[in-house]
Amino acid sequence: MNGPLVPNEILTPEIGLVFALVAGLLFGFFLERAGFGSARKLTAMFYFRDFALLRVMFTAVVVGAVGLLLLGAVGRIDLSMLAIPGTYLWPQALGGLLIGLGFVVGGYCPGTAAVGAASGKLDALVFMIGIILGILGFAEIYPVIYDFAWSGGMGHETLPGLFGLPSWVIAMLIAGMALGLFWLAAVAQKFATKGT
Amino acid sequence: MERDNPPAEKPAYWSAYVAGLAIGLTLILTYYVMGHGVGASGAYTQLAARMLETEAPEHAQTNIYLRRYLELGPLSQSWIVIEMLGVLLGGFLGALTARRFQFQIERGPKIGEVDRLLFALGGGISVGFGSRLAQGCTSGQALSGGAVLAVGSWLFTLAFFLGGYMFAWLVRREWQ
């Protein structure tokens, strides 16, 4: 069976909805096992104490990127059919900053807040309410910030397209960068926890 | 909450690399079946749109941002909403089987419960607003968009870590 299965009409959208529950179950369970139902564990890397967030995130992205490229290379998945998020430079840069800010202040992101709340954390539940309020606030001022919200558009640009390099070269560069960051994180953690 | 004597039999977290591998494989499976990755903030947005529709139907219909989400159909037919129900369930099962489920307000030793909840609310507002500006969050952009090497997703990831380090010092008393 060649993927993606639902877009290729090998599976129906109804089965896709059932799969949504399975994908969410796996995602939520693994996030919990990573320790990401805990705000203190999640924010610890910003105080150089525990870099689990960096290690989990980059391992997952590298595994995902390399796995998809391999599946594409052996013809099991049509990579051209995968959804590539559109690039809008300025709102994505500012949005990333605001999520980074909200993450260290509140302790979670939208996915991990759900895991935290499901682990019994009242602070995670309050964070989720905050997310809804933030979205409603955005929707109210959307007409005013419309031009900014769609600025720096580059279509569905990818790193291989931008740099004119094959996808597997980019994936290997990212994997190398991840290994470098893991090493840096270990060094930073060693210095930060020295004497405590 | 710090405990003086943590129960010794509580299973530890997985190695970050094992957990990362498991999440990466989940991501591949999701792309293989659906042609898109996982997400989170989109489900909150649909919920926000429905809440506004319930409280102020006319206002919701004239809101050009949330109106698009109302046109997507009922929550029960939404892929990302069902996926987030799965995340809640998966997180709950994970916490339960690791004997980590506990009603609590997680905070550092130097901050009160009310203050911690106010910080959680404020942080949530910033994340909710930012997720709409960025058209995704750490799930949809950093993980899913990152795996398909989207330019904006990698810019987002960079900005996310930068934002975290820029403001961490200001709120250090909340956690340490």
Q: Could you walk me through the main structural features you see in this protein, from its secondary elements to its overall organization?
A:
The complex is a heterodimer of chains A (196) and B (176). By secondary structure, chain A is mainly alpha-helical. Chain A has a domain at 35-55 and 83-192. Chain A has eight helices and no strands. Chain A has helices at 13-33, 39-43, 52-73, 89-106, 110-118, 122-149, 159-163, 167-192. The longest helix of chain A is centred in the last third of the chain and has 28 residues, at 122-149. The radius of gyration of chain A is 19 Å and the shape is globular. By secondary structure, chain B is mainly alpha-helical. In chain B, helix 2 packs across helix 4 (64-70) and helix 2 crosses helix 5. Chain B is globular. The model of chain B has no long low-confidence stretch (mean pLDDT 94). The interface between A and B is large, with 127 and 122 residues.
> What is the CA-atom radius of gyration of chain A, in angstroms?
19 Å
What sequence of helices (H) and strands (E) makes up the elements of chain A? HHHHHHHH
| Separate helix tally of chain B | 9
Shape of chain A: globular
For the biggest sheet of chain B, the summary is: none
Mean pLDDT reading of chain A: 97
What labels would you give this structure?
heterodimer; A: 196 residues; mainly alpha; 8 helices; globular; B: 176 residues; 2 domains
